[in-house]
Design a protein that fits this description.
By secondary structure, this protein is mainly α. 55% of the residues lie in helices and 10% in strands.
């Protein structure tokens, strides 16, 4: 994946990241930036940008672009990999591969979180480890690669970084909430009940914790939105039912 000697000195150090090693991130992404400012922007969490009084340099705009690029690349990939599957099967594959839990897992595996620039207060709160922050940063990084190097560079990174996830999908996945609902109906039980038990974190990076109850069993999940927390709770309960 390397596109640059990791021993090459880097002058883009940022005291808020705690790392300042943009060369390492370029190695992770497989792309040496002609416009280093794009990489710096991709690694800047909203809290760090607000601390400087420059909200416009946070990674939110790049995240918006990266989300669309990732969706295109993954859609292209699954259509190519499963040429005989109908849209009804490809859709769940795509949804799973671009979901927040998968994005966070990929970001953590490649080591992107260590180089994120966040405010000191958020760093102490462990914001760099939150799924929503990792997922957003990964999408922003993809957006930065796309703008700096084009679609092919972005595609190359995604196809390497997501290889483990796509190989773990021999069959089209079912949405966890739908699968749990189907299970409950087959058992003659009432539909699953979801309850938000807590909501913590700042407004720009909330964390919801949800429980789901079905047939007297309980699952728990925490995520950056109610929907993702509910999905994780359903997944937790399904694992316990297996």
């Amino acid at each position: 994946m390397a596109a640059r000697d990791p021993m090459e000195p880097d002058s883009d150090g940022d005291p808020l990241t705690g790392q300042g090693d943009h060369a390492t991130v370029e190695t992770i992404l497989g792309h040496h930036f002609a416009r280093p400012a794009l990489l710096k922007e991709a690694l800047t969490h909203r809290s760090a940008a607000a601390g400087r009084g420059q909200r416009s340099i946070s990674n939110e705009r790049l995240e918006f672009i990266g989300d669309r690029v990732l969706g295109l690349v993954i859609a292209e990939w699954v259509a190519e990999r499963y040429p005989r599957e109908p849209e009804g099967a490809l859709g769940p594959r795509l949804a799973k591969l671009v979901s927040q839990p998968v994005l966070a897992a990929v970001a953590e595996r490649v080591g992107l979180g260590a180089s994120l620039s966040v405010s000191p207060g958020e760093a102490k709160a462990g914001v760099k480890k939150r799924a929503t922050v990792l997922a957003d940063a990964l999408e922003a990084a993809i957006g930065a690669v796309y703008l700096d190097g084009g679609l092919e560079k972005a595609r190359n990174f995604v196809r390497i970084a997501w290889q483990e996830e796509i190989e773990a999908q021999p069959l089209p996945p079912k949405d966890a909430k739908s699968a749990l609902q189907e299970w409950a109906l087959k058992q003659g039980e009432a539909l699953p009940t979801y309850v938000v038990v807590s909501c913590s974190g700042p407004p720009h990076a909330p964390e919801f914790c949800v429980t789901v109850t079905a047939a007297g069993r309980i699952g728990t999940g925490c995520g950056g939105s109610k929907r993702s927390a509910e999905t994780l709770a359903a997944e937790d309960l399904l694992r316990n039912l297996a």
